[in-house]
Amino acid sequence: MGEASTILIAGGGTGGHLFPAIAVAEEIAATTPAAKIVFVGTAKGLETRVIPYTIWELVLMDVPQLKGMGLFRKLKTIFSIPRAMFQAFFILRRYKPDLVMGVGGYAAGPLSLVASLIGIKTVAMEQNAIPGLTNRILGRFVDRIFVTFAESAGYFSAKKVIMSGNPVRKKIRDVSQHKPVKRDKFTILAFGGSQGARAINENMLDALPYLSDIRDDIHIIHQIGRGEDVGRFNAAYRARGFSAEVYHFIEDMGRIYSSVDMVVCRAGSTTVAELTVTGRPAILVPYPHATDNHQAANARALADAGGAIVISEGELTGEKLADEVKGLLAEPVRLASMAVAANEFGKPDAAKIIVEECMKLVR
Q1: Which of 46, 62, 263, 304 has its CA 20 to 30 A from that of 73?
Q2: How confident is the model at residue 254 (pLDDT cuts 50, 70, 90)?
Q3: Average of pLDDT values for 170-196?
Q4: Using CA atoms, how far apart are residues 312 and 310, in angstroms rounded to an integer?
Q5: Quick check: do 6-167+348-362 and 173-345 share a fold?
Q6: What's the average model confidence in pLDDT over 51-80?
């Protein structure tokens, strides 16, 4: 990647797409400081709350979504796709990028497709064990596709696939390079991703009566995803006599990962990547409505490697969650082996691998 290269990173929407993209941008900035990086997203995406506080530029597209709509709105959306393609063309003409990287999310599709059709080098990142429809289509056009799980490689041409792993931001990767921050109590982190998870939130509270016999031995850090509920959750923990910290959103996840002994969470690809890079054993509750049930596949991959326990949302109860927590607390050797297995499953050099392969494309 030349010193004066311009790279457009297209996509976002959720942390699962945006945070790996930021990890790649950090690696580009570190290895090629003169390269220009521009993020392309949508007004409703998480990128509008994150990228403006970084050193990079953010350009917005009006890309409609198809998920969760009735037939009439879906038809209206389909007819608006040509407009999104024209927006993509004009963005490409304005920035004249050397490379376009699609990271998932609504902006990734039209920008990557148009870039490929007009001869710009393109790559895509597929973070999940089961690829989404957009990447299955883009896989026919892009020059390289970076995958996290071996299970997803079979959906693409073998000559395009690079088994890179899912990039993790530097401030989280660095946790694995330092001695963890230890608390006096066994510390559990519970969260549902950048947008929270009602099932995990409510079952954490439902688990408290079943954890009462060990409440003096544990500390809970809980990201609930909804600012208006912080007071209610704090009151619930206090009423049961538990030591707990409740947050709407945790900005510095690296600091938190360094402070915990285990995690209760969803199984999004970025969450799984962070768990493995930091070596944190987990109880995973896959989101059952994820496209193609990809979170269940992500969770199975880590569980098969020995780094996690999986509870389906349909089977999740406060009592079952408490039983799993107490079981792990009572078996420190098992917990330690899960931590080792999770860490061995991780790929801390994922961002470096991706950037090096991209450099080969644009030289």
Answers
A1: 46
A2: confident
A3: 75
A4: 6
A5: yes
A6: 72
